[in-house]
Automatic annotation (TrEMBL):
AMP-binding enzyme C-terminal domain sequence ranges: 500-575
Family statement: Belongs to the ATP-dependent AMP-binding enzyme family.
Keyword Transferase carried by entry: no
Top-level enzyme category: ligase
Name of the protein: long-chain-fatty-acid--CoA ligase
Keyword field contains ATP-binding: no
UniProt superkingdom: Eukaryota
Cellular localization per UniProt: Cell membrane
PANTHER family for the chain: LONG-CHAIN FATTY ACID TRANSPORT PROTEIN (PTHR43107), LONG-CHAIN FATTY ACID TRANSPORT PROTEIN 6 (PTHR43107:SF10)
EC number annotated for this UniProt entry: 6.2.1.3
Primary site of residence: membrane
Catalyses which reaction(s): a long-chain fatty acid + ATP + CoA = a long-chain fatty acyl-CoA + AMP + diphosphate; a very long-chain fatty acid + ATP + CoA = a very long-chain fatty acyl-CoA + AMP + diphosphate; tetracosanoate + ATP + CoA = tetracosanoyl-CoA + AMP + diphosphate
């Protein structure tokens, strides 16, 4: 008996010691393990689809949900509730119209230009039910870009929302001349060559079309085309296969979402965040989503309280806009437990959680077309994900040295890239393989090839170039540093715009700031410049900004110039526009916004006059 007790005591001590050791040396072991097991189990499920040559798509899951719980709310939009059965039947009607009137066939590509509304989903699902791929068009693009999008994906049919038809203007004639048939979600239109859908919808059957039309045997079959924002050129059509669609749909589930969640989607459906992760994720869970036509910072928390929202989607500066709203006693009165998105800066992250409660912020890193995804399942502030030994076995990626001056990766004497050490910043590359394929862009092999780097470490290998500078710390946490194009070099040092932005945002009178580099004749690299919006009720204070910049930023990273703006130009996904700011430079004679220059003698940012500008251009003023 004594011997048995001794063994039990030794075992208990051993287990306790192992537990303490694990906590000290491997504090994230169990969280990593359980998260990876979820990821692997889902990956196995996708592999089974390959073996069976029969894919259960996101649409199939939606149809199953409509049969399992037909009366459950699927989409709540502007106070109206649309159940799973409602959306299923309306999309059935549309699919019958598509077959009978539009004469669409399996394999056709159809362009969809529509604002956020339930009919976006009905048209999308209706097209998918007849086996068509859908090209989501950005509602903000005009003329040349719009025509370019049709050429990319070879769409010959356009379905347009009722509120967007008038905005086509002269482009409509060009579309019709190109033999593109235009169908509007209206009962009647003035233009004789534009067809109407709503009148035909009323008479259509809500019976499902044959399932064989939507069936697919390959995960690699294209189902969507989602366009990049095209901020520095024409949009590119990223090919979205069923594989990518299914991966995106599992995002909420991977973070712990359930069918009881209510998901708030304020982002545009024509981008992957809202469509693949938001709608796809709602379908995967069998949950309910609150769909907003447009994001409204003033309505956000009232909506969350009204609909008992538990998960919301964010991107870019959305959380910053919420933090800029006036404080109220109800700031922490809500049921939101999780936010899923990307681009959340450290300072905003801390302020958001401090003000609105301990909401789990789940950062997701990955471009629409990319073959790599990081997910911050731990919740470490300021990181986009976490890696470990097992993760690296599943997903092959590397961080390589990058030369800012030459704007290219650093190569060794054999012409191969060099990996950075832990903690160092490097260009993120993701290996292209059978398990991590890159499907590229529609209509341009050249653009697809441009995103690939070949012969990176050995001859014959291929990597997807993310264009992002990242760092991985000793604990395996991965941090986003900057875009390659956003980082600039000044006085022999690399300036990361995101880091300067986070520092300047601590200044009380600054509401928004956009940091970029401008060229100065006779100087290497680019000098730092910051476009700012001043908080309501505050004034620009050059001395305070000077004190802050000189105290918290190294000399090379301090903005030499400041530009005050009324409105900050943003993309449709809330990303700051830098291109036009960089192009316009810092010339006070061509810029109407107030400009300021860093002045060490006066220890302030002083008005940038023509005289000061000329002295800088002439090389007379020390920078």
């Amino acid at each position: 008996m004594t011997l048995s007790l001794g063994w039990l005591s030794a075992l208990a001590v051993g287990v306790f010691s192992a537990h303490v050791l694990q906590k000290l040396c491997f504090p994230y072991f169990w969280k990593d393990l359980f998260f990876l097991l979820k990821v692997i189990s889902y990956g196995v499920k996708l592999e089974v689809f390959k073996l069976r040559s029969s894919v259960s798509t996101v649409l199939d899951r939606f149809i199953q949900n409509a049969q399992r719980f037909p009366d459950k709310p699927f989409v709540i939009y502007e106070g109206s509730v649309h159940t799973y059965r409602d959306i299923d039947r309306r999309s059935n009607r549309l699919s019958n119209v598509f077959l009978d009137h539009l004469k669409l066939k399996k394999g056709d590509c159809v362009a969809l230009l529509m604002s956020n509304e339930p009919d976006f989903l009905c048209v999308w699902f209706g097209l998918a039910k007849v086996g068509c791929s859908v090209a989501f068009l950005n509602t903000n693009i005009k003329s040349k870009s719009l025509l370019h999008c049709f050429n990319c994906c070879a769409a010959k049919t356009l379905i347009i929302g009722s509120d967007l038809l008038e905005g086509l203007d002269g482009t409509l004639t060009t579309l019709l001349d190109d033999n593109i048939q235009v169908w509007a979600m209206k009962s009647q239109v003035e233009h004789t060559q534009v067809h109407t859908l709503l009148d035909k919808l009323e008479a259509a059957s809500d019976k499902p079309v044959p399932a064989v039309l939507r069936a697919t045997t390959s995960l690699k079959s294209p189902t969507l085309y989602i366009f990049t924002s095209g901020t520095t050129g024409l949009p590119k059509a990223a090919v979205i296969t069923h594989l990518q669609s299914l991966k995106g749909a599992a995002g909420f589930w991977a973070f712990g979402g359930t069918e009881d969640d209510v998901i708030y989607i304020p982002l545009p459906l024509y981008h992957s965040a809202a469509s693949l992760i938001g709608i796809g994720g709602t379908v995967h869970l069998g949950a309910t989503c609150i769909l907003k036509k447009k994001f409204s910072a003033s309505q956000f928390w009232n909506d969350c309280r009204k609909h008992n929202v538990t998960i919301f989607q964010y991107i870019g500066e959305l959380c910053r806009y919420l933090c800029n709203q006036p404080t109220t006693d109800l700031d922490k009165v809500h049921k939101v437990r999780m936010g899923v998105g990307n681009g959340l800066r450290q300072d905003v992250w801390r302020e958001f959680q401090s003000r609105f409660g301990s909401i789990q912020m789940c950062e997701v890193y990955g471009s629409t077309e990319g073959n790599l995804c990081f997910m911050n399942h731990i919740g470490r502030i300021g990181t986009v994900g976490r890696s470990n030994f097992f993760y690296r076995l599943l997903f092959k990626y590397d961080l390589v040295k990058y030369d800012m001056m030459k704007d290219e990766p650093v190569k060794d004497e054999y012409g191969f890239c060099q990996r950075v050490r832990r903690g160092e910043t490097g260009l993120l590359l993701s290996k292209v393989s059978a398990t991590s394929p890159f499907f590229g862009y529609a209509g341009s092999k050249q653009l697809t090839e441009k995103k690939l780097m070949r012969n990176v470490f050995v001859k014959g290998d291929a990597y997807f170039n993310t264009g992002d500078l990242m760092a991985e710390d000793l604990d395996g946490f991965i941090c986003f540093r900057d875009r390659v194009g956003d980082t600039f070099r000044w006085k022999g040092e690399n300036v990361a715009t995101t880091e300067v932005t986070e520092t300047l945002m601590l200044v009380e009178f600054i509401q928004e700031v956009n940091v970029y580099g401008v060229e100065i004749p006779g100087h290497e690299g680019r000098a730092g410049m910051a476009a700012m919006i001043i908080r309501p009720g505050h004034k620009f204070d050059g001395k305070t900004l000077f004190e802050h910049a000189t105290r918290d930023l190294p000399a090379y990273a301090r903005p030499l110039f400041v530009r005050l703006q009324e409105v900050m130009e943003m993309t449709s996904t809330f990303k700051q526009q830098k291109f036009q700011l960089v192009q316009s430079g810092f010339n006070p004679s061509t810029i109407s916004d107030p400009l300021y220059a860093l002045d060490y003698q006066q220890k302030s940012y002083i008005p940038l006059t023509d005289l000061i500008y000329q002295s800088i251009i002439a090389g007379e003023r020390k920078l």
